[in-house]
Amino acid sequence: MSFGHKHILGIEQLSADDITLILDTAESFKEISTREIKKVPTLRGKTIINIFFEASTRTRTSFEIAGKRLSADTVNISASTSAVVKGETLEDTAKNLEAMHPDIIVMRHGHSGAAHYLAERCGFSVVNAGDGAHEHPSQALLDLMTIRQKKGSIAGLTVAIIGDIAHSRVARSNIYALKKMGATVRLAGPKTLLPTEIGRLGAEVYTDMNAALDGADVVMMLRIQQERQGNALLPSNREYSRFYGLNPDNLKRAKSDALVMHPGPMNRGVEISSAVADGAQNVILDQVENGVAVRMALLYLVSGGEQLAEQSA
Amino acid sequence: MAARETIILDQPAISRALTRIAHEILERNKGTKDVALVGVVRGGDHLARSLQQRIQEIEGVELPLGTVDITMYRDDLASRGSLPVGKTELLFPLENKRIVLVDDVLFTGRTIRAAMDALIDIGRPQSIQLAILVDRGHRELPIRPDYIGRNVPTSVAEKIEVQFSEEHEPIEVRIGKP
């Protein structure tokens, strides 16, 4: 089985076989992070630029560590220290970076479609680390890896995704990924944060959180994106927490061995109570650990995928 | 298939070769002290398990057994594309061990170069020896096996294949002429 993708722009473009190959590759890479010398020479001589136009700790660190453990040279640029603040366009920034011959650009951008835009115009591989409210493919893949490790497989499971669906690229990537792998996806959130057309992606849509939790195998809580709440979509955090916060009581509605997941950063006491976030069912730090392995797999696979894409072209 | 295939080693011949190699490993290392077997995925891992069983029958000692996958250490990522990555499993410390690296076919030596790099990244063995079922020549690196099942002169275009049963027992070695 080979991987024919030069870019990772979203889960939408990947097949179930592609996803399985990524997860299997990530399982093999996981062992490297437990070694005393956490490095293999696989991507020696490759240059990876991580360019983040939005704040990120987890994803950026995870991609940087992933690149370094594979021996690639990784460079980080954040928007606040880049020429973007001087008014440079995305295309000009990309063309200037391209002139330095990077092999892979990992980009997070506030606008949906930014990763596609770059992939169409430049010669390097593009890995989307989150574009606007569109996709966050590496997050969905590490979520799938965590579910597969804990539950054995993904097909047949019921996964409830709860919270701010409208602004969530994590939700969109997870809906694509979970559906492709044969899971049932339930979405729940207040009407103001549920896009009217979201059901067309194949998920069941609820406004009652309790109904979405009933008998679920996995509960995925989304972050209330305070920075995108400018136009008063929620009355208050307290009211939100009462109706859409996960706590030990409503968690009982899900299966007793249901997994509790959160992509981070958590707003403790808002979408998730501390008792649940630190409870026995949480796999939140497993998600972070698997994140490095999944990102190693993505960087490795696009490095070879580029070659295959050129051969078949 | 127009290719002509000849069986160059059958099951009894492979079995005798492995038993001889097991004795040679014990003789060279003066017993089993600090000796550990590491098979190269895939093929070498099955042969390493066979050698472990044989040494247990001879000496009554179960040697530590591990596997090493070399995909991450290949020098041809750019030309071959991304291959599936297998499992490296070394559940014992390599420090001060005499490692016997086991593979089915020795050809250019590039796989063994990669396997040695992989081992040295994980720990610092006292020594690394190399056991091979079939040595077909055409080395591209200065690598020499310590234990050889059979030397088989080949042309570069010929294919050597070791067949394993579902229980991972070696059944036969075939040579295919193009």
Descriptive labels:
heterodimer; A: about 325 residues; alpha/beta; 5-stranded parallel β-sheet; 4-stranded parallel β-sheet; 11 helices; about 40% helix; globular; B: about 180 residues; 3-stranded antiparallel β-sheet
Compact summary:
The complex is a heterodimer of chains A (313) and B (178). Chain A has helices at 16-30, 58-69, 90-98, 114-121, 137-151, 169-180, 209-213, 237-244, 248-251, 274-277, 284-312; strands spanning 47-52, 73-78, 104-109, 125-131, 158-162, 184-188, 204-206, 218-221, 259-261.
Describe what you observe in this structure.
The complex is a heterodimer of chains A (313) and B (178). Chain A is built from 11 helices and 9 strands. In chain A, the strands form 2 sheets. Chain A has a 5-stranded parallel beta sheet. A 4-stranded parallel beta sheet of chain A has the order 2-1-3-4, sandwiched between helices. In chain A, strand 3, helix 4 and strand 4 form a beta-alpha-beta unit. In chain A, helix 1 packs across helix 11, helix 5 crosses helix 6 and helix 5 crosses helix 11. The C terminus of chain A is likely disordered. Chain B is α/β, with parallel strands linked by helices and 178 residues long. Chain B has 4 helices and 8 strands; from the N terminus they run βαβαβαβαββββ. Chain B is globular and about 45 Å long. At the A-B interface, helix 1 and helix 11 of A face helix 3 and helix 4 of B.
